[in-house]
Structure formats: structure tokens, C-alpha cells
Amino acid sequence: MTFASWYRRLGARYPRLVLATALRVEYLVVAAGAASLALYIDMTPGQLAVLALVAVAGQEFYALMTLRYFRSRLEPVAEWIGGERSGPGAIEAWRNAASAPYQLLRQWWRGGYPFIADLAWCLFATWLLGLPAWAIAVLYLAAIVMLAYANGIAFLMFERSMQPVLDDIATQLSDEVEIDAISLPLRRRLLSAIPAISAGVGVLVVGLVEGGHPGVGELLVAIAVSLGVAMTLAFAFTILLAESVVSPIHRLREATAKVGGGDLTTRVPVGSADETGALTRAFNRMVSGLQERERLREAFGTFVDPGLAERVARDGIDQRGEEVEVSILFMDVRGFTSFSERAPAREVVARLNELYEVVVPIITDRGGHANKFIGDGLLAVFGAPERLDDHADRAVASALAIADQVSDRFRGELAVGVGVNSGTVVVGTIGGGGRLDFTVIGDAVNTAARVESATRQTGDDVLITEATRQRLRANATAWEDRPAIPLKGKSEEIRLHAPERRVHQATAVS
């Protein structure tokens, strides 16, 4: 049965039980340590059993104290597993679960266990076996090496067993959350673990090879030689191994930080054919895919409104139809049809692009969506797809700014009429055969187009309907009533308003 299956089975009891299990696994190591002492010192089976039992009893005392120490530290984890799965609770639970294995390792050194229980066992063993007093120091050194190995096993086992808990909590955390959990870096793990293993194995090998119970002096020599080799020749190998493992990971971490900062040109050279090389290639392919997606998003954003492009990238293309209250702005160029008949096609397109370079930023800067370019006309929506409570104010401000800036920029060479209307429309994606278009449908849209046409009759460059004027919140502009006129396609007359002193002065394009 895997750790994940045990986690699902035990629930909130899991963290404390796996910690208790990891601590009790050390029984095997301390008992084996007592047995390895029999390779160097002649003792009866009864003496060996007593030494092993005393060592296990000391380990049990340490396990009980450790479990008591970790009760409060694992409580947030157990509460989260048991049902308190709130945002702040999840962060604290993940931090405690991730920090617990390293705290276990640190507790062993800081708790004074090596200086108390080990020393007591060494004094007892020296008395039981009738060894000279100087043997206490030798046994104590051997016990430290043995317990370092035992606690390393407990640390790794506890860390591995907490992985299902961390995975479960992580599903409730945002990708942007950074949690300051404590841990043991990979380089330090390798630099500390391999020498400890080498020293322990060296002592065991010497005892097995020598045979005949060579004594405490030989045990001291075995420990000294094993530690010397572990900290010199073997340590050089350890450093190279640690660098071989950690260096590619550090390069990937630095590259990931660059990608997170927006540099999608980042690539990591593939420097090996092992798992780290495969991971590097996967990283490069991932960044290449992100770069291609960004290019597509930028290209998409040039053909549709950038706000809509972001919304589609975030929510998908399924923008279902719904009724929304919006304000519609319709703009058209005066006399552009006759101009396009006389001017070369390139000049016509260039002049329109120049106009829209002025108009579109005005709309988008005020939260509007440039929905459609209809030849020399433009349909803009305020309040969809992003909901805006002050959509009427934004639409009117855009209409006034368009009229002013077009007049200032083109000095009579181009003149526009702008109509604004507010009302309820249906917004959503419409299309088929692999082609979709985000659009707005409703009487309010048709009315806005008719209002823009009415500017030709009234001589104004901006007209708004009564429906829009009633929705204005910041009504800083003075408005003049225009005679109610019948609009094409409308059975009832519509009240129109124009801003004071904004009578259209420009002529048609010539």
C-alpha cells in the first residue's frame, strides 16, 4: 500500500502516525548498532540483548518526547485535513507540513539527545562489559555516527510520507502563493549524508573483516580511518556528485525566474543525457510553446479588441449570449464614400488607418470595446464584455474626445459624426464553421446607428439619446435639446441632445 493510499485511509491521523512510524523505524538501526559492537568486543548473547533493549528503550523515550514536541506543529495540518480547508488555513498547513521533516532533523541535534541518552548508554555499556573508562569516548563517537544514520533515515522517510499531504494542500493554493517553509537544500543533503554512510559502512566492514573481537582500540582505529576517508577522498567525490546533481537544477531555477519575469526567449543549454537533460529539454519545449502562444495572443489582439483577447485567453471562447445594459457608440466619416471613389485604394486605406489610430485608443482607454470596423464606420460598446456601471459616462466622454481630437488632427480634411445610445442588448459569440465573432445585438445598437445618421441633419458632430443622458452620472457637459426627429426604421420619435457649442464645422473629405 502506498503513502497516498494510507493518507486517504487515515485522514487527519495520518501526519502523526507516519511520524511515529518513522521514529520507530530507528529501533532497527540502534539495535543493529548494538549488534555491530559485538564484532569488536566479546560479549554474551544476554549482554547483547540487554544493550539492544536499553538502546531501543532510549529511542522510545526520544520518540515520545518528539511526538509531544510535534503535537502543536502538526495540529494545523490535521485540522486542514479534517475539514478546515480555508485559504489562510491551507497556507499554514502547507508551511507546517513542509517544514516538519527538517524540524525533526533539527530537533535531534537541538534537543540534547546525543549528549544525554547516548552518553548514558555508553556509560551503561562500559559498566556492563567491564571496559576501561576511556572506552566511553570511543563508544560515544560510534553511537553518534550510528544515530546520525538512523535520524537521516527517519528524516527521509517522514519527508517522503508527507508528500501526499503537501500535494493535497497544494491543490487549494494559488500558483502565486509563496510560502516560507524551512527545508534542507539538496546540496547539504548530499554533503552530509554520503560521509555519514561511508563512515558507518567502513566501521561495519572492518569489524566483519577483522573478526575475533579485536577490541575497543581497533574500533577507535576503524572509526577514525572511516571518518578520515569520508571527509577527504570520499568527500571530494561527494562534492562533485552534489555539483553534478544541483547545478542543472539551479540553472533551471534561474531560467524559470526569467520566464516568470516575461523573458520568453530564455533557453537552457542541454548539458547531459540523463534525467536532468530530459527535464531541460522539456523546459525548453515548454517555453517555446509559451512563446508561440504569446505570439498568437499578440496577433489575435491586433485583429480584435485587446480587452476581448485577454478575456478569451482567460475564460475561453464560450461567451454565451446574455442580456446586458450597455452604451453603444457609432462613428462614421462624413462624405467618405465619394472620397473613396476618387482616391486610389492605398490612400483610402492609409487615411482610414490614420483615423483609427486616433479613435481606437480613445475608446479602449475608457474601458470600451471596439467591436466592429464597418468600412469608414466604427461600432464600440461600453459595458460588455466587461461590466461597467458608468458605461454611459465613458461612452459620452469617448464621443466628445473623438470629435475634438479628429478635428485637431485632421483640420477639416476629415470630419466624423458620433451617435451614442444606451439600452439592453444581447452580447455573445456568434458564428459557425470554425469562425466566431463577439457581437452585440438589439434595438439599442440599431438606434445608435440611426442617431449617428441624424448628425447629418442637425449639423452636430455628437448626438446622444435621452436614454443615455438619463444614465449620466458625472454630467459636467451642458446639453442642448434637439427637436425630436423620426429615425429611419423607428416608429416613434427619439429625443436627441447635443453638447453646447459643438456645431459641426467640417466639410466632407475633398
Written description of the protein model:
This protein has 2 domains: 3-183, no CATH class; 321-499, 2-Layer Sandwich (Alpha-Beta Plaits). The chain is 64% helix and 13% strand. It contains 17 helices and 8 strands. It has helices at residues 3-10, 14-37, 45-82, 87-110, 113-129, 135-161, 163-170, 186-210, 216-231, 233-260, 275-303, 306-315, 336-342, 345-365, 391-410, 443-458, 466-471, and strands spanning 322-333, 369-374, 377-382, 416-432, 435-441, 462-465, 479-486, 493-499. It is elongated.
Helix content: 55-70%
What is the residue-averaged pLDDT?
81
Could you give a short account of the major beta sheet? 8 strands, mixed
- Helix-strand makeup class: alpha+beta
The ordered string of helix (H) and strand (E) elements is HHHHHHHHHHHHEHHEEHEEHEHEE
Domain tally: 2
Using only CA atoms, what is the Rg? Answer: 39 Å
Strand content: 5-15%
Low-pLDDT windows of residues: 502-510
Which descriptor suits the 3D outline? Answer: elongated
Number of DSSP strands? 8
User: How far apart are the termini?
Assistant: 84 Å
Summarize the structure.
The protein is an alpha+beta fold and 510 residues long.
